[in-house]
Amino acid sequence: MKPPRFALALIFAAACAARFASSAEPRIADEHIILHTIGGDVVLALYPDVAPETCTQLLKLVKLGVYDTTYFHRCEPNFVLQLSTPDFRLVRMTDEQKSAIHKIKAEFSDIKHTRGILSMARSDGDVNSAETSFSILLGDAPHLDRQYTAFGKVEKGMDVVDGLVRVPRKKGTTEPIVTLLLGRAEVVDAATLATMPLRGPEPILVPNTMELDEGALAPSDEGIASWSASRRLVLSSLALVVVIGLIGFLLATKISQRTLLFVNLLNILVGVGMLFLLLTSTGRSLVHLEGGPGAALSDILSESARAATLGMAGVIIVALLGVIFTRGTPKMLSSLNLINVLIGAFLMFVMVVPVTQTSSALAAGVFLAVVSLFKLMGQFEAG
Amino acid sequence: MDAKAEAPRKQPLYFINGPVDFALVGGLSIAIYFLIHILYGTHDPRLDPGVRTATDPVVVAAQRLLWICNWPHFAATSYRLYHSRDNIKQYPLTALVIPWLVLAGVFASVLYPDTIAPMFILTFMLWSPYHFSGQTVGVSLIYARRAGFNVGKVERLALSTFVFGTYLFTAMFVHAKGNTLPSYWGIAVPALGLPVWLWVASETVMYFAGIVLLLCVVRWCIQNRRVLPLIVLLPSVAQYCWFVSARDWPTFNEFVPFFHSMQYLLIAWSMQLKEKLDLAQNQPQPVRTPFAWAVWAGSLAVCAWFAYDLLPMPESFSAPMRGLATALVFGLYAWASVSLNRQKIRPSKQYVIFETLRWFEMNILFGAILFFIFPMALTKFFGVKPFLALGVTAAAVQIHHFFVDGVIWKLKRKTVSSPLMVNIDDLIHPTSDFGSGGMPVPALSGAGAGVGVGSMPVLERKA
């Protein structure tokens, strides 16, 4: 028996209505949240009818400044960009801010977790454990539907979000190598938003290591222990420059001019040796990686290696000055050596700082060395 | 430890007078600290959307003060070193080699903005509060000397440890593991990741040194039956307020460079006026260096540019009217500048007023050249990104300042008596021994003598 046509029409209409109902966008609140991030401004629209408690609480927290100086600590392209909890923010929270934070009940809905949707983070075992942290969806994630509270969407600034996501991450983690800072979050109404100039997207500068090896161009979090022989050789050469400079500086008044001449010649030797290393073997190893055979020298050497080359040229020039002015005053000769200490120490600083986060002892050593150098600078050109 | 008082003291305690000296060397900073605290409570107004309207004036005020106080203090240092050939000859490496080294840093930072620029800026960020500490110790020692408080080894050690302890405390807090640094002109700067126990240790050492210092002061007061003038300890207390109490208070921190600069300008101003008087007595026709001429010409050019570009003029002004107004302002400035340079150099109120105006006007304009024109030129002529140019230039000028400041206070001139012991009365009232070095001549030993680079001089009595 054929079903009556009107019944089919009814079923079709009901299906369409259901489809329409599920795809219709929920009402957007008049109050919007603007995230002023390191890469520009992102405007968030909230769904008060879908997740009323979440929206109310978030607006309250933003108004109290709870999100200020937090950062995006988790970045997984095509999945989520997640904001840290304010416990780890740059500026400590006030008591009022702390007391405003509480757990929010889950408000699951039919909203699909698609690109641009905002979704509250929570503990794995407790659906009612959302507090402050939320994610911006970077792609479709149907497995999150009805598991996490979706409460709004990115209205403007998805290009800013994409810029943040492009920042490289630490090796083997989802943590970006630079702090994707959320300087300030604020609440504005739709009328104000319409006339408000928005920032971004802006480029984010990413620090690089003095990377001389094939492989990672971003700072690794493995520490110095994992560095290749060439990097360790460059670091050792720089350390040698610093030690020789320190000997020349501290003993300038106590050793003969001939010995001081020898000290400066030694620094020239180390400088020339390192230049040779930088311009030849390191260069060749990078040809394969970056430039290809026959590439210009500037293309062959990595940015950091070129900086080291420049620094070593400086060391050689200063040491040459020390040789030329061998008959100069001890004050001048010792200070020339101190300049070489500075150049060598700065290049070491450039190499080591990107990995100090991996070792507390290394960080402490670098800091104490830097302070000692500042102290030593008090003797620069001292009579 | 020798904590005896000196013989009856003729030396005036203050450079100008009590209230002004108190305000400039730290009193004003403490007052502003409490004022902001009262106005905004424990909230940081910059971070609290509820009081954003009240925040803007704070930030705007701090930015304006950069022009009239912070930048001129950098200019004053360079002026002091470079305006005399004698000074350049005393410290040839600092005067002639260090600028090239710093320029190489700028060059490398611009060429390698991802590798060198963050480290160049981090160097400046680590050095800057160290430099502040050196100055704080120096200013304290100047007032101690003026107050007749004989600073022995223990007192000096306690003072230095306390003041530099505040530096270590704030640096270790900022660079503690897990902390992140705000970007500097958009340039991401990494934190070192120091272990947290170092921060706690530095705090302990700082407070211990503070207690020892206070005990030394109490002992001195009991032995000498008089109270140590508070101004001796004021710079240290102010620094504690800047670095410890307000360490994570961005709104207040906006002003800290201004407070530091005020301290500096008070001393530098006194020295400038006194040295000029003494030199005029011994060398009536001062020889200007090409640098001094260049600064003067540069200041004229900057004034012309300011007048043309930045003067608020009604939109109804036609081009000729605008040109006329520019010429008028520039002419007035040039006339004032020439007039100020022609003043009679002898102790008088007129001398103090005009020389102060001349010195400040020149430093304000030279400061603008360093921090404003230089980065603009980098952007315009070399295509450097504006924020990168601003950040790197600001770091470079300050690093150069730290170098120069390390030697500037060691400058010795036989013709100069004792500008660090000057009081405004010496500048206003002619005395019979004007210019002959009537006051006791202190030997200046520089920052290296126990307080580090970038400090004001440490005064030591000659045997």
Quickly describe the structure.
The complex is a heterodimer of chains A (383) and B (463). Chain A is an alpha+beta fold and 383 residues long. Chain A has helices at 5-23, 52-64, 95-100, 158-165, 190-195, 229-251, 257-279, 281-291, 297-300, 303-324, 330-352, 360-377; strands at 31-37, 40-46, 70-76, 80-83, 117-120, 134-137, 150-156, 180-189.
Written overview of the protein:
The complex is a heterodimer of chains A (383) and B (463). By secondary structure, chain A is an alpha+beta fold. Chain A is built from twelve helices and eight strands. Chain A is elongated. Chain B contains 15 helices and two strands. Chain B has a two-stranded antiparallel ribbon with strand order 1-2. In chain B, helix 2 (52-82) packs parallel to helix 10 (256-282). The longest helix of chain B has 34 residues, at 349-382.
Features:
heterodimer, A: 383 residues, alpha+beta, eight-stranded antiparallel β-barrel, 12 helices, 8 strands, 46% helix, 13% strand, B: 463 residues, mainly alpha, two-stranded antiparallel ribbon, disordered N terminus, disordered C terminus
Shape label of chain B = globular
Please give the alpha-carbon distance between the first and last residues of chain B: 17 Å
The 3D shape of chain A can be described as elongated
> What oligomeric state do these chains adopt?
heterodimer
Roughly what fraction of the amino acids of chain B lie in strands?
Answer: under 5%
Most extensive protein-chain contact, per-chain counts: A-B, 69 and 73 residues
